[in-house]
Amino acid sequence: MKKVSTMTEGGATTTRGVAKTATGAVTIGMDLGDKFHVLRELDAAGRVVGEGRIAATRRALEREFSRRSPVTVAIEAGTHSPWVSRALEGWGHTVIVGNPRKVRAITSSTTKCDDRDAEMLARLARADRALLSPIRHRSEAAQADRAVLKSRDILVRSRTMMILHCRGVAKSFGAPLASYSAESFAVKARQEIPAVLAPALTPVLDSIEDLTRRIRKIDEEIEQACQEKYPETEPLRTIRGVGALTALAYVLTLEEEERFAKSRAVGAYLGLVPRRDQSGESDKQLRITKAGDRLMRRLLVSSAHYILGPFGADSDLRRWGLAKCECGGKNAKKRAVVGVARKLAVLLHRLWRSGEAYDPFHDSRRKEAFREKHCR
Predict the structure, then answer these.
(1) Is the N or C terminus of the chain more exposed, i.e. has fewer CB atoms within 10 Å?
(2) pLDDT in tens, 88-135
(3) How far is CA 45 from CA 21, 24, 41, 158, 238, in A?
(4) How many whole angstroms separate alpha carbon 181 and alpha carbon 159?
(5) What does the buried/exposed string (b/e) look like for 28-38 if buried means 16 or more CB atoms within 10 Å of the residue's CB?
(6) Across the beta sheet with 2-7, what order do the strands follow?
């Protein structure tokens, strides 16, 4: 890192080096990039005493930070932040991972550049780390297991696009395909497509079959992981509509049940609560924040659709959602689904903490017992 010359009180020029700064008083802001990381270092008085950039490799990071005294490093959450934060913490440094959605001083700056971003991260961390809305990355093992779920999601979406392509092409030739499940689509569609479309669609159908086999194999691995590696998913799966995929994704996303003191906070963490814009007597009704993990939120919404659908089992959660659907308005069903997904996120956390099986009528019995006790 380049040393920066500063003026002393007497007017003499001195050079402040990284190693000469007092331990515990150094704050470094690091703007992470794909090729280079830009650094700005502040001393205890808030003066810039070091600046520069290093290659975005583990070796370069180790050369810069592995042998120096512990410092505070502020970075923003992103693609590189998980491994960078783990490496820095392994060398004894304190790492603050800022939430880019919350740091408007950086994202809304009119003079945004890597150098200014790095310096702003350092100054926010030096003033009050709460200004960065720090987040905590999951462990390397959890990140690796979760990558399997994301790979499955990519394969499923690719298969869906191929199926839609086949349907669209067949329809344009006056031979619309019947409604098949994704797992059986390739086999049954071969029997229906016109001969003139065989050269065009056969390679796509072959790819669909291959993707189906790969997805099925990943599903088997997920089931095995739930039984052997993550037994805490068992009580979560007692809810009809929550399978191995959703339960494992939930555990890997939160990683620790003690992370939240109250289960209600999980809904906000996963972006399933409305935005808030209140001023004076004005309190607008806004859409959900969509903060947190997209895949987890999508899986919860999918489970909510099943719970409210024709195959959903009777439960307090289903009754609550159906009542919301009957409130009227064109968005009643959408709001009910999101509401059920939010309640489901809270319920899963409670089951995880207690380790108990799901009681679909727990609230009904509790209210009935309360009425009997106080209405005699």
Answers:
(1) C
(2) 999 999 999 999 888 776 766 677 788 999 999 999 999 999 999 999
(3) 11, 12, 11, 54, 56
(4) 12
(5) bbbbbeeebbb
(6) 13-16, 2-7, 48-55, 36-42, 27-31, 72-76, 94-98
